[in-house]
Specification:
The chain is of the alpha/beta class and about 260 residues long. The chain contains 11 helices and 8 strands. An 8-stranded parallel β-sheet has the order 6-5-4-3-2-1-8-7. The longest helix is centred in the N-terminal third of the chain and has 14 residues.
């Protein structure tokens, strides 16, 4: 029987703020929660309120997201997101790269690792980014060469990138501090249709155990006790469960059934 701690990913409740997400995670008996930090609207008061809510509800903060590395992106903005996460007690910072210069991506990730007081800097790969598969992610993290640099896997991105599950099993455990989890249909978007790829990632995911992904094999390939962030981005789920607590409960129910 799996005993992984489970977290409610912020992407399950994209239309809600941090306090609602934290309350929903507690209502559904999650062990942890993830939070989306939008720098444009995030204030010192937001940090104080979220930190207090996490403590009052007894929830770990599995991650804050998202740092988007772009050719023109400013490392100072990335560091601000990391600083907010550190103040909140986040274990991980989720990063993706839209920079085709992978050496530049590695340099910016290294700067974040050097700045971090202990938050893991986790690079997520996927065909929606310039780091399209696990092999590319491993090469970037090897170039970063820092103990806080990590890789984030997500079953839908593993499948859509044609990454072999056996490849995941070869990763040193310290590179996988946590993982995202979801299910998905068999049909894949065309690799050159960016809009379809994004729709697939944010609207078409399925509850764990109800789709076509080999989730049992993926669980066997990752370290046995790492936290799992249930990343159920789904239009069907949003439409059927407008209440954040009810939506979180349904995600938890599906995971427990699996």
């Amino acid at each position: 029987m799996r005993t992984n701690p489970i977290a409610l990913a912020s992407g399950v409740l994209p239309e809600f703020g941090p306090l609602d997400i934290i309350a929903a995670a507690r209502a559904a008996d999650f062990d942890a929660v993830g939070l989306w930090v939008g720098l444009a609207e995030w204030t010192g008061a937001t940090t104080r309120d979220a930190k207090a809510a996490l403590a009052q509800n007894g929830l770990d903060l599995i991650n804050v997201e998202v740092v988007r590395i772009k050719p023109e992106s400013l490392v100072d903005d990335h560091k601000r997101t990391l600083d907010i996460g550190a103040e909140l007690g986040a274990k991980n910072l989720l990063c993706v790269s839209s920079d085709p210069d992978l050496a530049a991506t590695a340099a910016k990730l290294a700067a974040l690792c050097e700045h971090s007081p202990g938050v893991q800097v986790a690079l997520e790969f996927g065909i929606f980014t310039e780091v399209r598969n696990l092999a590319m992610a491993r090469s970037v993290i090897d170039a970063v060469n820092h103990p806080l640099a990590a890789i984030l896997i997500d079953p839908i991105h593993v499948d859509r990138s044609n990454t072999a599950i056996a490849e995941i099993a070869t990763l040193p455990p310290h590179l996988l501090p946590y993982a995202q989890f979801c299910d998905a249909p068999t049909e894949r978007p065309k690799p050159n249709d960016f809009d379809a790829i994004i729709t697939d990632a944010i609207n078409v995911r399925m509850q764990c155990g109800t789709g076509a992904l080999p989730l049992a094999a993926m669980l066997d390939a990752i370290p046995p006790d790492i936290p799992l962030s249930i990343e159920m981005r789904s239009k069907v789920l949003r439409d059927n469960f407008p209440d954040p607590a009810d939506r979180a409960r349904d995600v938890a129910r599906a995971w427990l059934a699996l």
